[in-house]
Amino acid sequence: MTRRAALGSAIALGVASTAGAAPASHPRPLVFAHRGASALRPEHTLGAYAKAIVDGADFIEPDLVPTKDGMLVARHENNIAETTDVANHPEFAARRTTKTIDGETQTGWFTEDFTLAELKTLRARERLGAIRPESQRYDGQFQIVTLDEVIDFAAAEAAARGRTIGIVPELKHSTYFASIGLPVEDRFLAILAAHAYTRTAPVQVQSFEVANLRYLRGKLPKGGNVRLVQLIGDPAQRPADVMKDGGTLDYRAMVSPAGLREIAAYADIVAPNTRMLIPLDADGRLAAPTSLVADAHAAGLQVCPWTFRPENRYLAADFRDAAGADARNPAGSIAEMRRYIALGVDAFFTDDPALGRIAVDGER
User: Fold this and answer.
1) Are 24 and 304 in contact (CB under 8 A)?
2) How far is 27 from 37, CA to CA, in rounded Å?
3) Which residues, other chains included, contact 319 with Cβ-Cβ below 8 Å and sequence gap of 6+?
4) Cα–Cα distance between 173 and 178 in angstroms, integer?
5) Strand, helix or coil for residue 350
């Protein structure tokens, strides 16, 4: 089987199961481009998505937040102070404000205070600055893009390259946006339905909240091309919708065997932080693996950890080299990903899909 055919088979298998079904078995785990190739291009731009696709990503990820006029745009957070040049636009200076979102107080500029037309006058910039100089070189070159534009871009790339490119959107801050009159779920479903590509191509919808995924499960056809991903945050914290309702469910309980069985009632995949699968010891090295992968598979869930990053500062101490905390360390990143792949994960998020591709397939 050719690599292209194998990837196509893996993607097909990746959308075969439904909530509560036994997880599909992949010949190799799928590579998810975290915010695009965000180690190399400003995140959530067409440049980042193009680079991810060239580098072999199976899925590209648009995190989604709404604009004032109800459009869904690709930004990791609704606060765009760090990821755009909005601070350089004097016409928007008065919109700098402080808000509390999911219990966190932030100061900056927020997408819900701008129309899409206004956001289109901004340009993206690298969030991590000097840590990622290659990406920083592209500051000012790319617009903020809508979900519609991401879908059209993925469809065009899929047609040009002759392979399916999955989309793994995350619905951000659903409870907060509903509280200000900008609920995102029905807007999101309408956009998927409006595009021929997302009516058939693999789509995996993520959230750190629970109620929005349950809502989507009730709206989506069983056995369709859209699957649901329960993201897992800090074990001691609770999902934002649980906090708002005064509930006690925290992420630690959600990844217990009983919690995973509950997730399987409405989702297909569980997505924990990498260190919940293999934690770090006191020296920052990988310790013994937990049972989370086996427990999730036993509950009928696939497992997709986040996020592998190629710089030394983000690697377990086992894999760092002597080039400095901010230096790229491709060999170390590949070696770390392979330790997690050996646990039997079904997919994983990486900021550098080219390295993820090598970790899965070997040297190209």
Assistant:
1) no
2) 24
3) 329, 332, 333, 335, 336
4) 9
5) strand
In the chain, domain spans = 3-77+143-361
For 3-77+143-361, which CATH superfamily applies? Phosphatidylinositol (PI) phosphodiesterase (3.20.20.190)
> How big is the chain, counted in residues?
364
Q: Chain-centre distance of CA 268, in angstroms? A: 15
Does this model's pTM top 0.85? yes
pLDDT per position as a tens digit, 138-150: 999 999 999 999 9
Query: Is 89 part of the annotated catalytic residue set?
Result: no
The pLDDT of 341-348, averaged and rounded, is 98
Strands 104-108 and 97-101: antiparallel
Q: Are strands 72-74 and 347-350 parallel, antiparallel or unpaired?
A: unpaired
- The residue assigned the tokens 């995190």 is 63
Give all strands (DSSP E) within the chain, no chain letters: 30-33, 59-60, 63-66, 72-74, 97-101, 104-108, 166-167, 170-171, 203-207, 226-231, 269-271, 302-303, 347-350
In this structure, are residues 152 and 60 in contact, taking their beta carbons and an 8 Å threshold? no
Choice among 26, 44, 76, 173 that is catalytic: 76
Query: Once rounded to an integer, what is the mean pLDDT over residues 280-308?
Result: 98
Cite the DSSP H helix spans in 220-255: 240-244, 251-254
Could you confirm whether 34 is annotated as catalytic? Answer: yes
